[in-house]
Design brief:
Elements: E1 2-3, E2 7-11, H1 14-24, E3 28-32, E4 48-52, E5 57-58, H2 60-71, E6 80-85, E7 91-95, E8 98-102, H3 113-118, E9 129-137, E10 145-149, E11 155-162, E12 165-171, H4 174-177, H5 183-201, E13 205-216, E14 223-227, E15 236-240
Parallel strand pairs: 2-10
Antiparallel strand pairs: 1-5, 2-4, 3-4, 6-7, 7-8, 9-12, 9-13, 10-11, 11-12, 14-15
Length: 248
């Protein structure tokens, strides 16, 4: 699932990350500035960085091909309107094609998750925000992925998006990307902030070659969150995972 480029992590929580990785037995290194071991298109190296040796960026093409090969023949394209749980604990899906009952159901509906989950008593944050990732031209190959969470300024996730391409996603001022400001205004604010970041912090060509837009849930963070309901739900568990830089 992961292109093993290695993932560099910088910012304010390196000690906590290093401790967690050591406890899990995950390979990591702490590297100081001037070591020459950071393969990132940076103007200036950070004073210290943690390298997730086996980290990298999600290989979206490989994951898609794998899932398509395994499940492609059984996929049904339909619009789901409602969910329900029977007295016996089974799940009922109401769609344009009718009502179908299942032993269990996995709900992963993106921006529509909260609306559907609430129908079966599962709470997920209903707020949405706008998010943009930009791609720039970069010289060289073999770059590491990068997660940067500074105490001040724009936090970013970055990775090589292809030959000569460098992708940058950033967490800009939440008031500028809130749902109510509208997509156009949020995209423009994000583009402006990330362009300024690229010009001052990176050695990329500061011209946008691609822009990817998506919606996110504010303050939920990246990773895996599991919430269950039904006769065999086992309650609610949160499984945070932020050891990989990934495109959204």
């Amino acid at each position: 699932m992961v292109i093993g480029s290695g993932c560099v992590i910088t910012g304010t929580d390196l000690a906590d990350r290093a401790a967690a990785m050591a406890k899990a037995g995950a390979a990591y290194e702490l590297i100081g500035a001037g070591s020459g071991r950071l393969r990132l298109p940076l103007v200036e190296e950070p004073a210290v960085a943690l390298v997730d040796v086996e980290g990298g960026v999600v290989d979206v093409d490989a994951v898609r091909d794998f899932l398509t090969a395994r499940a492609g023949a059984t996929v049904v394209q339909d619009r789901v309107y409602a969910l329900d749980i029977t007295a016996a604990g089974t799940a009922v899906v109401t769609s344009a094609g009718g009502r179908v009952e299942y032993d269990a159901l996995i709900l992963a509906a993106g921006a529509h998750t909260s609306h559907l989950a609430a129908q079966v008593g599962i709470y997920t944050p209903p707020l949405l925000a706008h998010h943009v990732r930009l791609t720039f031209r970069v010289d060289g190959e073999g770059w590491q992925s990068w997660i940067d969470k500074p105490a001040q300024g724009t936090g970013t996730y970055q990775h090589q998006a292809g030959p000569g391409l460098w992708a940058v996603g950033g967490h800009v001022d939440p008031s500028l990307t809130a749902w109510e400001v509208g997509r156009d205004a949020a995209v423009e604010a994000s583009r402006s902030a990330l362009l300024d970041y690229a010009r001052t912090r990176l050695t990329v060509a500061p011209t946008i070659v691609e822009s990817v837009y998506c919606t996110t849930v504010p303050n939920l963070g990246d990773g895996v969150e599991l919430r269950r309901q039904g006769a065999r739900s086992g309650g609610l568990r949160r499984q945070p995972h932020e050891a990989r830089a990934s495109a959204r």
